[in-house]
Design brief:
Arc Repressor Mutant, subunit A; 73% helix; 2 domains; 197 residues
Amino acid sequence: MSKLQNPAKGEAEARILASAAGMFASFGYNGVSTRDIASGAGVNEVTIYRHYPRKRDLYLAVLNAQLRQVHLRGDLLARIAEAEDARAAVSRAFELIAAMLLNRQDLLRLIQYCSLEMGDEIDPLLRRHLGELVQVVARYLEPWVEKGELRCTSAKTLVLSLIAIILNYGSLHRLFDRDAPSPEALFSACAELSLAR
């Protein structure tokens, strides 16, 4: 006989995850208590601990749920493959990464907070979800590296650099440049930096 799911239990867990995602993205792991999350979810704190024995388990579940929503876009991969030169390939790779991550501000903040507060415990989770992005985009850029048209020796390192730019784009421009360039201008500047001269 199969177990019947309790719909109220699933709804409570969904509310906990939603509450925790918003709070962790706004205040970080250390800036939020399970009591705050329980209040936001409309449950008591014991309910959180029934689903997640430790606060860290809840954070990992939130990050995992957010990362599962990141998907490669075939139309943008095709644009990289159709690039006529290295500059266009890098610009389009940057465009793909930006399309996947820039509109996911909560995810970007969760990744930033976890890199500061969680240490390397989070690395396997990030590798599992973002590893495909790195590998696939690097494969599309590799021919340009092999031809010597890009000044890097590793396409994977270039992709990781593009991801790092996206992760820090908003906060750096907010601090140092109130008139932040458009994403297109940023794509173009990054492509220029990558080109071999």
